[in-house]
Every structure is written in C-alpha cells, then in structure tokens.
Write a structure and sequence with these properties.
3 domains; elongated
Length: about 290
C-alpha cells in the first residue's frame, strides 16, 4: 500500500488532536498508559465481550504506527502485521461512555428528555477509562476531572494544532465561489470559528470517524446563518429606502426586474379572447 500525499486537513490528524484535547480535560492514573483507548462501549458490562475487538483495534493501530515510522519505501503496511496473541488483555484500555461521574444540575432545562439534560452542561460527551484487573475492572481515567481528581470544566484546553485546523478549515471554506463574494465574509468567518470552539470537542468518535464532515457542516451552518441575518437586515433597509423615495439596493432592483419579466411572460402566454386581458389574469399577474 503506497503512501498518499498529505492533504491540508485529514481525518487522521484531526482525530488525533481531538483525542489529545479531550485528554487534556481528563484525569488519568497513568496518562502515558491509559489515555489511549482501544475500544468504545456504552456500559461496563460490554467490556468482556469487546476484548477481541479491542485487541484488533490495538493491533491495527500498532501496525499503522510502525509503517509510518518505517523509512524503507519498499515495505508495505502488511509487512508490519501484529499478532493478536502478543497483546495482553490486561494492557487494553476500554472507554465507557457514561454520565455517572457528572454532577446534577436540576432545572437546567424545562423539559429534560435525556440523562444529559439533568447534568451540568459539558463541552464533550463524558467517559471513563477502564482496564482489566484480574476479574475486576479498574477505573484508570475520568473525563472532566483535573489532576486532583476533582470535577473541573476549566482544567484543560484544546491543542494549538486543533485550533489551527479550525482556522485553516474556515479560511479555506470561505474561499469557495458561493461565499467569497460577500462583503460580510469576515463576520461569517468569525461566527464559524466561534461555533467550532463551542462544538468542536462534541464530536463523538463512537459514532463516526469523519470529523472533517462534522466540522464542515458546522461551518456551513454558521455561514448560512449570517447570510440569512444579513438578507433580513437588507430587506428592512430596502423597505425604508423605498418608503422615503430613495433608490434601494441593487439586489432589490434586480429582484423587481425579474418579477416584472415573469409578469410580462404571463401576459404573453395569456389567451386574449375579447381583445382584453381578463380581470382574473391581471390580478394574478400583479399579485405579490
């Protein structure tokens, strides 16, 4: 398998930075050993049946890492295959998605519909890391906890690389032909960056491995929101200008011209029987 060229942004690097950023907000018994999970489950009871999958995931990760560090271009990724039997199940790390360690916040939402609605608002889905300790499961990592093992929402930060990815993504997206011509493109960029800082870590690795699509959708929504707001404000401004006898914006003039052409096409296509256009047709033509 040949190495591909480096894209300006790719899912692999984004996933790595998202993982590191979430780890910055978390407590680990041994950060070097326990920050990297091998499989994600929804309950502690699912750990034992996920051991084989966790081994496979770790083997795949070790294989890719060895291949990337290799300098011999003749070797393929398959040459670095890792035997599953060499992986000790006691070394595996299991991420369990849970809210049990998150404090309650009654009344945060008027009509709570999920467990999250009863808890403190978080910047990403909470989790715990477990390892096998004989027949028991040992807790070795807790999200949203600081180094003193206390609940703390301000105890970490996103990595500088992830922040640069946000900026690069917004900048490149704003250069697309359907956005770059707007005079308020800077405001669009600002709103998109603000949105990414708020929802960037909410990407759930258990549901998808494509953060690029997730972030692009968020940027597109931010741009569209600003565009709709500006259009609404422009419409109000044009209405005031027309009422005061002034010339409205070029956009309003163009819309008026297009409507006039549509009305004239209706006149042309209307059948005239008594040398006059029926009253109903006139009402239809000039109805706004």
């Amino acid at each position: 398998m040949a190495r591909r060229g480096q894209n300006y942004l790719n899912n692999k690097d984004m996933l790595r930075q998202i993982h590191t950023s979430k780890a910055n907000y978390s407590w680990f018994e041994d950060r070097d050993k326990h920050h990297q999970y091998d499989v994600i489950v929804n309950d502690v009871k699912e750990i034992r049946e996920s051991i084989e999958q966790a081994k496979q995931n770790r083997a795949d990760r070790m294989q890719k890492e060895a291949w990337e560090l290799n300098t011999d271009k003749k070797k393929r990724q398959s040459d670095f295959l890792v035997d599953l039997d060499t992986i000790d199940k006691n070394d595996l790390v299991f991420r369990v998605m849970t809210f049990e360690h998150i404090p309650d916040e009654p009344g945060r939402k008027n009509n709570p519909k999920s467990i999250a609605d009863h808890k403190v608002k978080l910047n990403f889905p909470p989790f715990k890391h477990y390892v096998l300790d004989g027949r028991k499961f040992k807790e070795v990592g807790i999200s949203h906890y600081n180094k003193n093992k206390e609940f703390d929402l301000q105890g970490g930060k996103i990595t500088a690389k992830l922040a640069n990815m946000y900026i690069k993504l917004v900048e490149r997206y704003s250069q697309r032909s359907n956005w770059r011509g707007y005079t308020y493109i800077d405001e669009m960029r600002g709103q998109a960056l603000l949105q990414l800082t708020q929802i960037g870590l909410q990407f759930n690795e258990a549901k998808s491995d494509n953060p690029f699509a997730y972030y692009t959708a968020a940027v597109n929504n931010s741009f569209t929101r600003v565009l709709n707001t500006e259009k609404k404000n422009q419409g109000i401004r044009d209405d005031l200008l027309e009422k005061s006898g002034q010339m409205p914006s070029w956009t309003r003039q163009l819309e008026h011209e297009m409507k006039s052409q549509e009305r004239w096409q209706k006149v042309i296509k209307t059948r005239i029987t008594d040398d006059q256009i029926p009253t109903e047709t006139i009402k239809e033509i000039y109805a706004d």
